[in-house]
Each structure stands twice: as C-alpha cells, then as structure tokens.
Amino acid sequence: MNTRHHSRSGATLAALVLGLAWAGSVWAHVFPRTQVPAAGATVTAPSEVRIVFDGPLEPAFSSVTVTDAGGKQVNTAKAAVDAKDHDTISVALPSLPAGRYTVHWVAVASDGHRTHGDYGFDVK
Known about the structure:
single chain, Immunoglobulin-like, 1 helix, 8 strands
C-alpha cells in the first residue's frame, strides 16, 4: 500500500470538507430569530415592530412594513437597521386601533442573499 497516496487523499478530502463548510457559512441567508410583537400574538397597540435576525443585515436593502386587515400600509416611518446591532431592524408605528396586522419583512444578508416573509399579530 502506498502511504504517500493515502496522506495526499486525506489532505484533499480535508480541504474539500473545509471548503464546503466555509462556502456554506459565506452564502448563508438570514432568518428571524425573535419578533416583537411575536407572530400570532395579541397585544396592546405597539409603538414599533422589531425583528432580530440570525445574522447581520444590509441596511440599504432590508425593510419592514406593516399593513392592516385591508392591506393598507400603516407605518409611515421607514424601517431602519440598528446602528449598533446589525442583526436588528425596526419600524415605528402610529397608534393602531384594534384589529389584525401583517408584518412584511425583507432581509438582505451582508453577503447579498435575500429572504422575505410575513407574519401576523392582533391589537386588542
């Protein structure tokens, strides 16, 4: 058996595994970790919606909007990524009457990959 061949194959395999692990972390998408108000929650009128993601966001391309049951956007302020915590985005809300609201989010990771989603909450 050729020991030299086996050690070279092992080094090649190790490099391949490390390369794939690195590529997976570089091309990762970001997803919500916590949401305030939480998905499905019934709350008193919140002053903002805040979402914390599992990785840093690209501020220029990430957004949050909130719509009422009729689909009308209720936030007039623009969402902003927190300057100190790039994993967090929030948007200020006006005083909301009782009803069902939907949060629409777009998260662009610092690597440029985009994810998006929606969730609802109720104001009592």
